[in-house]
Design a protein that fits this description.
- β5 and β6 form a beta hairpin.
- The longest helix is centred in the last third of the chain and has 17 residues.
- The chain starts with 9 loop residues before the first strand and ends with a helix.
- The protein has a single domain, classed as Nucleoside Triphosphate Pyrophosphohydrolase (Alpha-Beta Complex), CATH 3.90.79.10.
- It is an alpha+beta fold.
- It is built from two helices and seven strands.
Length: 148
């Protein structure tokens, strides 16, 4: 299925990984969020659960390994062109996670990796829903970390 002008919504997953009170953000090299900082994530592959997809994408994009703390929320990205045709349509299952290993490495999908304060990341250009996602994700990891 084409990601550009798809004939149906595309399932994707992302993860907010926390380490020592900071969250991992990756600067996108392509797609509708190109050049913006966002949570690592991508399209779900056939036979993969949403959580598996989030962890795989995290590892592939950044080299970081984490465990799922919980499901955060879903995000819908619908982008239309000048003729009102749907150019992109993603439904993203967003998870919260706790860091296990890896500092983060750049690569083909992430030109920069940063660990930032989830409540004060300054002037970084971020994806539209990020500021809404992070407080809830932070609360999830706090509960999961306390339950360890």
């Amino acid at each position: 299925m084409s990601r550009l002008y798809p004939n149906q919504p595309i399932a994707a997953a992302s993860i907010a990984v926390f380490r020592a009170g900071r969250v991992l953000l990756a600067r996108r090299t392509s797609g509708p969020a190109k050049a913006l900082y966002s949570l690592p994530g991508g399209v779900v592959e056939i036979g993969e659960t949403l959580a598996e997809a989030a962890l795989r994408e995290l590892r592939e994009e950044t080299g970081v390994i984490a465990r799922i703390a919980g499901f955060n929320t879903h995000v819908e990205i619908i982008e239309r062109d000048e003729e009102a045709r749907v150019r992109h349509h993603f439904i993203i299952a967003s998870f919260a996670g706790l860091w296990i290993a890896g500092d983060g490495e750049t690569g083909p999908e992430a030109s920069e990796i940063v660990w930032v304060d989830p409540f004060a990341f300054g002037t970084l250009p971020v994806t539209a829903n990020l500021t809404d996602l992070l407080p809830r994700a932070y609360a999830l990891v706090q509960r999961a970390g306390a339950a360890k």
